[in-house]
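User: Please fill in residues for this 196-position structure.
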C-alpha cells in the first residue's frame, strides 16, 4: 500500500470516528442536539444530491465540486476550470427546488491532490475536536467544511455564540482562514429548539 494512500485511509477513519461519536455532545449547558428538525436534515440531504446531479460533467468530473446544504443554504466548495464554470455552478445550484441561498466559494484552478484533500479532512476533525475541548461549545451545533485549508462554519447560532466558534476554529494549527456562514437565531428561538 502506498504511503499517501495509507495516510488518506487513516485520516478518513479518524474523521468517520469523530463524526460517529458526534451525534450528541455534552456542554456546560447540558446535552446539545442537532438544531435542525429531522425534516430539514432530510431536505438538506436531498438538496445536496439534487445540486450534485445538476452539475455538468465538465465541472464535477475531473474537477472537484463539493455540495453542502445546511438549513437549505448551499455551500459550493472545490475547484473549477474558469470563472464561467464557477458562475454556472452557482446558477444551477440556485435553480434546485428548496434551495434558499447559495454560497459560491468555488476556486478557479486545478483540483486538490489526494494529500491536500486528506489534510483538509484532518483539519475538519481537529476543528471539531477543538470545539469539544471547549466545554461551552457543541461540535454538533456547527457544521465544519474545510477546503484548501479554509474552514467554513455553517449553523444556527445566536450572536452571542458565533464569535466563540470562529475564534476557536481560527486558532487550530493549519487553518488559513475561517469563513462564517451562520444563520442567527435569538435566545428565545434557541430555547424553543431545546424544548422540542
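Assistant: Residues filled in for all 196 positions:
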Amino acid at each position: 500500500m502506498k504511503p499517501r494512500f495509507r495516510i488518506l485511509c487513516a485520516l478518513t477513519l479518524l474523521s468517520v470516528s469523530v463524526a460517529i461519536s458526534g451525534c450528541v455532545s455534552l456542554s456546560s449547558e447540558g446535552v446539545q442536539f442537532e438544531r435542525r428538525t429531522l425534516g430539514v436534515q432530510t431536505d438538506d440531504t436531498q438538496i445536496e444530491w439534487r445540486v450534485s446531479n445538476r452539475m455538468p460533467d465538465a465541472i464535477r468530473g475531473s474537477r472537484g465540486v463539493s455540495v453542502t446544504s445546511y438549513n437549505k443554504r448551499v455551500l459550493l466548495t472545490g475547484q473549477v476550470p474558469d470563472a464561467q464554470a464557477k458562475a454556472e455552478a452557482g446558477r444551477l445550484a440556485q435553480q434546485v427546488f428548496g434551495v434558499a441561498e447559495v454560497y459560491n466559494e468555488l476556486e478557479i484552478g486545478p483540483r486538490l491532490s489526494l494529500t491536500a484533500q486528506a489534510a483538509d479532512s484532518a483539519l475538519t476533525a481537529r476543528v471539531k475536536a477543538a470545539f469539544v475541548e471547549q466545554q461551552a461549545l457543541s461540535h454538533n451545533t456547527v457544521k465544519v467544511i474545510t477546503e484548501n485549508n479554509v474552514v467554513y462554519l455553517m449553523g444556527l447560532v445566536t450572536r452571542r455564540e458565533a464569535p466563540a466558534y470562529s475564534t476557536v476554529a481560527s486558532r487550530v494549527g493549519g487553518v488559513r482562514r475561517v469563513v462564517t456562514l451562520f444563520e442567527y437565531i435569538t435566545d428565545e428561538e434557541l430555547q424553543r429548539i431545546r424544548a422540542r
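For context: Helices lie at 3-21, 38-54, 57-60, 83-94, 114-133, 162-170, 187-194.
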